[in-house]
């Protein structure tokens, strides 16, 4: 059974993967558009953190957020890069 923290980390890692794919020079325009469409609605680390605080059964805490919802820590800094605005 997947634990909430495992689900959280998987979502963060998947978002980072999509951002890395988006910068792939060999990507076709249709693939690039599909990835952008996915990222547009993909939860950011802050969204997961808020979901965890509302109900910790689905997503686990996003470690590195403090009470003011600011990022700290290496893993979360990496996740924050996945929170960038989706390019047009």
Number of domains: 1
Helix content: 55-70%
Q: What sequence of helices (H) and strands (E) makes up the elements?
A: HHHH
Cα distance spanning the termini? 38 Å
Biggest sheet statistics: none
Shape: elongated
Write down the Rg.
14 Å
Give start-end ranges of low-pLDDT stretches. 66-74
Number of helices: 4
Percentage beta strand? under 5%
The pLDDT mean sits at 75
Class by SSE composition: mainly alpha
| Structure summary, number of beta strands | 0
Account of the 3D structure:
The structure is a single chain. The protein is built from 4 helices and no strands. The model is unreliable at 66-74 (pLDDT under 50). The longest helix is centred in the first third of the chain and has 19 residues, at 4-22. With 88 residues, the protein is mainly alpha-helical. Helix 1 (4-22) packs antiparallel against helix 2. It has one domain (4-81). The chain has helices spanning 4-22, 29-40, 45-54, 74-81. It is elongated and about 40 Å long.
Explain briefly what this protein structure is.
This protein is mainly alpha-helical and 88 residues long. The protein has helices at residues 4-22, 29-40, 45-54, 74-81.
Furnish the topology, listing elements before pairings:
Elements (H helix, E strand, L loop, with lengths): L3 H19 L6 H12 L4 H10 L19 H8 L7
Helix pairs in contact: 1-2
Comma- or semicolon-separated keywords:
about 90 residues; elongated
């Amino acid at each position: 059974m997947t634990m909430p923290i495992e689900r959280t980390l998987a979502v963060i890692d998947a978002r980072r993967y999509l951002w890395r794919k988006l910068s792939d020079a060999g990507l076709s325009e249709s693939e690039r558009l599909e990835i952008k469409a996915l990222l547009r609605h993909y939860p950011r680390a802050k969204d997961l953190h808020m979901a965890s605080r509302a109900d910790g059964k689905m997503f686990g805490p996003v470690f590195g957020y403090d009470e003011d919802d600011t990022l700290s820590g290496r893993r979360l800094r990496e996740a924050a890069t996945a929170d960038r605005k989706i390019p047009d």
